[in-house]
Specification:
- By secondary structure, the chain is an all-beta fold.
- Helices cover 2% and strands 34% of the residues.
- The chain has 2 domains: 257 residues, Jelly Rolls (Sandwich); 211 residues, Sandwich (Jelly Rolls).
- It is elongated.
């Protein structure tokens, strides 16, 4: 467990260097970046790839999720392999183009399934090295990993990164297949040098957590580049190494830019914590959008929980049929949170489960009871209003709004008075936001602030400037992200 924890970076520290943006990739939308016609590099034998990634989908039926692919024929690639027999899958596989010949180097027999964490990946290649096993090295969050080799690179071979007419894709294979699902930040290619992880990151002296460094002054070589995704008007823009031009965008727009980053990690929906009909329900688009494929109870909770502080999130139900939606909060030890299986309850619908749900009919579920609360927010056949959730862990209260009108005459700023609030059944526990649906074809979008599936017209943030919401969070309430948790949680 300790070794696994060292591989995880949940962005929970002040780093001194902040990454402002990431880019959300979704294979169902065929979203990826590609550059073609890149000129001859400094060395096709020696180079380094670095990027930060946060996965949002595992066990989604896609065999491979490519981090990047390169070479004129796309024969070089680094990807997560979900169906690997090693360690239950979700390992990293390494392929290299050896003189225009595809070679499987091997895999990391570590399972990368944490959808709440950012991973920093550094892949360094030097075919001139006299030691075969040292010609390909890979580091995760600053720690060199053991490659289980299938083969090693031949000495002095060209790997075709930066060859004439060469291509490079990010977030998919060269032809757009086997796309990555999740977020990427700080993508860097260094041409002509095989670098270690300390060129891109460092260990925090207080927490021991691996954190990013400013790479803007790093020497990138002829065909190297640095992409930070800060330009919403062109998310394929290259910030450094611009002589080779920007990347072409495939189905990626400004709407895919996110503020969920390695230095401020946001809560998202937890794809690993769901129940009932998981094979027919998908959670996609940065783990912020859930759609039912068949009738059955389905709940998704967040990747982060808070035991103190005041927190805000937004949910938008999308319902072509029916109106069975539930939106609310649930504790981290709720009995409905486990992997797989079936259960007959929604949060709050069973006595003692600790959950609270605001039902689309206007009622609430609380401690096994179903009683009136506010207005209905569903009539079927349309996109619903934005529902706000204000969770006050300091006073053990939760409030709900419809289109910024707080229900039951609620006042989230009333503190211990709790005007119009619902009392949490287990205020001593840690809570997160949830969304639940039942009917086939129904969908729900959850906005924790780092990325949102539904369209934001106003772009409001909390008082610390974090998160992007349709409505301003009530005074004293904040987006559920690690910078805010460090201060309030």
């Amino acid at each position: 467990m300790e070794a696994l924890q060292r591989l995880h970076n949940r962005g929970s520290i002040s780093t001194g260097y902040d990454i402002e943006n990431s880019l959300k990739f979704e294979t169902d939308n065929s979203e990826y970046l590609k550059a073609e016609g890149r000129s001859q590099g400094d060395s096709q034998q020696t180079w380094t790839w670095s990027c930060w990634v946060k996965r949002t989908e595992v066990d989604n039926g896609v065999v491979a999720q490519y981090i990047f692919s390169a070479g004129s024929d796309g024969k070089l690639g680094l990807y997560f392999r979900d169906d690997s027999s090693s360690n239950g899958g979700d390992t990293i596989f390494i392929y290299v183009d050896e003189g225009n010949s595809l070679k499987w180097i091997g895999e990391l027999r570590v399972s990368f399934r944490d959808t709440s964490a950012w991973y920093h990946i550094v892949f360094a290649v030097d075919s001139t090295d006299s030691t075969p096993a040292d010609r390909t090295k890979i580091y995760i969050n600053g720690v060199q990993q053991t490659i289980t080799f299938n083969s090693t690179l031949n000495k002095n071979v060209s790997t075709r990164v930066g060859d004439n007419g060469g291509k490079f894709s990010i977030g998919a294979k060269m032809d757009g297949s086997y796309g990555f699902n999740g977020y990427m930040a700080e993508c860097v290619l260094v041409d002509g040098s095989a670098l270690g992880p300390t060129s891109f990151g460092e260990t925090d002296s207080i927490t021991g957590i691996w954190k990013p460094k400013d790479v803007s002054s790093l020497s990138l070589g002829t065909t190297g580049f640095h992409m930070n995704f800060d330009d919403s008007s062109n998310v394929g823009a290259v910030q450094s190494g611009t002589s080779q031009g920007n990347f072409d965008k495939y189905n990626l727009t400004a709407a895919d830019q996110a503020t969920d980053t390695p230095t401020n990690n946001f809560c998202t929906g937890n794809n690993l914590v769901r129940f009932t009909n998981p094979s027919s329900t998908v959670v996609v688009d940065g783990a912020t959008f859930m759609q039912k494929g068949a009738n059955g109870r389905e709940t998704i909770s967040g990747t982060m929980y808070a035991s103190s502080g005041k927190w805000y999130a937004e949910v938008q139900p999308i319902y072509p049929t029916g109106n069975n939606f539930l939106i609310g909060v649930m504790p981290s030890d709720s009995p409905i949170i486990y992997l797989g299986g079936q259960i007959s309850n929604f949060p709050g619908s069973a006595s003692g489960d600790g959950g609270v749900s605001y039902i689309s009919t206007g009622n609430k579920y609380l401690d096994g009871g179903n009683s009136s609360y506010g207005n209905a927010y569903s009539s079927g056949g349309s996109v619903g209003p934005v529902i706000g959730i204000a969770l006050d862990m300091d006073n053990g209260k939760v409030y709900f709004s419809i289109s910024n009108v707080w229900q039951n005459s609620g006042d989230p700023t009333s503190g211990a008075t709790g005007t119009g609030a619902i009392d949490l059944p287990s205020p001593e526990k840690s809570y997160s936001f949830h969304a639940s649906i039942y009917n086939s074809g129904n969908s729900v979008a959850i906005n924790y602030g780092g990325y949102t599936y539904f369209t934001i017209s106003s772009g409001e943030s909390d008082a610390n400037g974090y998160g992007t919401f349709e409505y301003a969070p009530p005074s004293g309430y904040y987006a559920l992200c690690t910078k805010n948790l460090e201060e309030f949680g």
